User: Fold these one by one.
Assistant:
Number 1:
Amino acid sequence: MDNPKHHESPGGLAFSVPLDNMDQTSGAKIPKRLLRKRDKDRVTREQLEEKQKLAEERRQAQQDAKLQRIQECQEECRKMNMQVDALLQQDAKRSGVPGMKHIKPMSRKQAATLINKVSQGFSKISSNIQSDVNNIV
């Protein structure tokens, strides 16, 4: 097995394309239309750096937008947390839990309005999360 003349098969490789010297072909002429396209498609270092700069700016803008959406969502969650906490305190006061005497009672209309706001907040947050998840996939 240690035969120095034996080289391993390339494992399913039908043929190989040498990439060392693309300008020299083995007797075949490159069509003029492809030569024009190849010359036209050459990119300079400055063009490449400009493209990279623009890509980095787009990436940064997307990241800033994502952070802004996260901050807005966190603020909405804080507001909802305060509203839910107020509702829980009202429930505890109505249930007669000790230590809730300092809580001002809320009318049914106020409670219904607050419940409606919490429901709308949950809907808004869940739709925002769903759209963010869809953008990831």
Note: Residues 43 and 49 are 10 Å apart (CA to CA).
Number 2:
Amino acid sequence: MDQNDSVITNIDQIKRAKSSAINRGYNKTEGSRDDITSGPIVSSTEQPQNKQSKRPKNTLLKQQRLPAWQPILTAKTVLPLFFSIGVIFVILGGILLHYSNIVNEFVYDYTDCNSVGTNTPCSKLINDTTTCLCEISFKLEEDFEAPVYVYYGLRNFYQNHRRYVRSRDDNQLLGNSYESLSSECKPYDEQVVDGVKKFIAPCGAIANSLFNDSFELNYTGAADQSPPLKINLLRTGIAWNTDKDVKFKNPESFINTIKPINWKKNVTELDPEDPNNNGFKNEDLIVWMRTAALPNFRKLYRRVDHSTVNFNSSLPKGYYKIKINYNYPVTSFDGRKTFIISTTTWIGGKNPFLGIAYLVVGSLCIVLGFVFLAIHFKFARNLKSSEDLYQSNMASSSRNNISVIEASESQQF
């Protein structure tokens, strides 16, 4: 056998080895598909008893043969999707915007209201011991259907500050021992009074900054000529049930405690009318302790009592007067305070943002759908079916592989 015959024999052997490896690895009719890089299978009897094989099990997951589906994006699938999403979002946005617009809301900024009998703003008169009284008259242009809620709003107040948010002791608010308060409460954790150390209840910066303005709402008739009729505002039912029942509990006693520095009352005197609404269970305190995520926010202050005769179904349109005990300072940090009367719907209070967002996204999808449709009609080309494309690609790949093999053989000769 000469040298040329030896080369040809070696090439034939290489081809047969490659063909055998491919058939062994990709034969779909076989019960298993061996990894062509793993070599021949060694029976369990030939392996050492103390040495386990590191070869992955022959499963779909470990051999990475799980079935998969890859979508082929074409104009027939993409364009209907754009139009469908656009129409659905526009409809949802219209519904949300409609229910937001039917909410009745009255907002009044009383930051600069003047003290009764003077022309001096209350913001310049209040201090740690003085309370300023101011009155505001306004008119509701339409009936506010029940239920009606009263809110207070603050602007430029950063309840989301990291140190502020952490300045509380949840263990104390759960009614447990307050003799070892969290270090996060400092410097609002304890005070020395007459040589005796007392613990602040509740401790921390959040509780110390509790909103303490109070409002009295009166109805003066449709023509502003009737004697003021006081509207009863309910102090309970304004906090989340989970907060009141789970997160806030009163201790057995408040002995050896003292009120926070900026408070004018002890924690046991927050509601003089309802003893069950005092201590850490006071709902005004619970509402305030749920910190806001943004610097401009509103919190629920009271619910209008609709059990009275004149207000059983609504707050009637007409003239009203608010008496405000102005205690809370905001001008030092350029803040603002607002008084809000509002109704609600199944989506909550007045907030058009969500409806507008849906309308904008839906409209954008519809516009893009028409743009892609125009591009498709102008620049479209006749494409084969996905199966034809697949077969064509496979045939082209096979031809390329054959050309590479033939080229390598010619180089060897």
Note: Residues 1-10, 21-47 have pLDDT under 50 and may be disordered.
Number 3:
Amino acid sequence: VDLENPDCPIYLFKGLRSDKDINNTIVLARRIARGPQKISSIAPANRTCITSTPLDPMTAFSMCNIAGVKSDSYILDPFAGSCTTLLAAAMIQPDCHTVGIEITHNGIVNRSDALLDFESRNLTKPLAFIHGSAIDESIRDRARNYIRMEQKKKEKL
């Protein structure tokens, strides 16, 4: 075990409860999320693309961390909405490659505004933001094709 640079640090928290009988409680915890200091930068109040049911930014960052987004990861969000998950992935790993699928029309989720949210934060835009249903196999094939094209580009380099 490398205690100087552990693969999975464990944190100890003592006295988290104010209950007098339990004030010596020790909790073992593991960090499951890592993101920018200002997660609020992708909160709905700070976004160009605003929807009626946005994903909470902390949830998006947690999902990306649990999924293990790494350098050169390929991420498909089949229910992209305003792209909160794809924004979080791009903030965690700027060189990841993302594709979003969203069924709603531009009156509900404006794809141009969603892409402006990437531009205004100097983040890598999704390879594609496809209008359609993720249940439709042809739509999923389109998303896979964008990823395959990107992989082929990288192979040529």
Note: The two ends are 38 Å apart (CA to CA).
